[in-house]
DNA sequence: AAGGGTGCCAACCGCACTTCG
DNA sequence: ACGAAGTGCGGTTGGCACCCT
């Protein structure tokens, strides 16, 4: 298996910070990327003088520091779009986020898990397959559906395009043109 | 006022995919 | 063609803030 981010310290003899980022760390990262652009994440921390692994830097930049991020509450139109996209794409958060300018996959994922999922449940819709829930409990819910979906997915080639076709097969009547084109540009 | 419960979100982990030598 | 290294993605977790009793 691949070396994990957290394995680095032993190898390099340098302690790697974990957990919340400090303002100084943020600033270092911003400064570095503004000067050199997003490049090799692996070497970035060392070059930028950060005691973080590249992965952590990338995540911090993509999810929090990027200047084009919107942040703040999701609008109703965004909620709608997320729900529709999720019905079509499943948990392809990066694809969904690609359709929402200024939003990140992590943000969309969190918002889905904390707000939209519950919202759908309240409306009597199964958030996993976007079908009306059976009145009597959860007879056929997430597990079965998810497994079939992941099975379908695993049969597809690249992640990006995969579930696009398959999950859409059981999406009800969504009046939305979602031809998958190139992402909105910025994207990572 | 304090303690427990719950929700939210940033960050981490590990797998899958891609690229490169 | 193959293996190692780098990157991206989705799932999960940790910890803080807020609410309720």
Automatic annotation (TrEMBL):
<dbReference type="InterPro" id="IPR001005">
    <property type="entry name" value="SANT/Myb"/>
</dbReference>
<dbReference type="InterPro" id="IPR017930">
    <property type="entry name" value="Myb_dom"/>
</dbReference>
<feature type="domain" description="HTH myb-type">
    <location>
        <begin position="13"/>
        <end position="65"/>
    </location>
</feature>
<dbReference type="GO" id="GO:0003677">
    <property type="term" value="F:DNA binding"/>
</dbReference>
<dbReference type="GO" id="GO:0005634">
    <property type="term" value="C:nucleus"/>
</dbReference>
<keyword id="KW-0677">Repeat</keyword>
<dbReference type="Pfam" id="PF00249">
    <property type="entry name" value="Myb_DNA-binding"/>
</dbReference>
<keyword id="KW-0539">Nucleus</keyword>
<protein>
    <submittedName>
        <fullName>Myb-related protein Zm38-like</fullName>
    </submittedName>
</protein>
<feature type="domain" description="Myb-like">
    <location>
        <begin position="66"/>
        <end position="116"/>
    </location>
</feature>
<feature type="domain" description="HTH myb-type">
    <location>
        <begin position="66"/>
        <end position="120"/>
    </location>
</feature>
<dbReference type="InterPro" id="IPR015495">
    <property type="entry name" value="Myb_TF_plants"/>
</dbReference>
<feature type="region of interest" description="Disordered">
    <location>
        <begin position="123"/>
        <end position="188"/>
    </location>
</feature>
<keyword id="KW-0238">DNA-binding</keyword>
<dbReference type="InterPro" id="IPR009057">
    <property type="entry name" value="Homeodomain-like_sf"/>
</dbReference>
<feature type="domain" description="Myb-like">
    <location>
        <begin position="13"/>
        <end position="65"/>
    </location>
</feature>
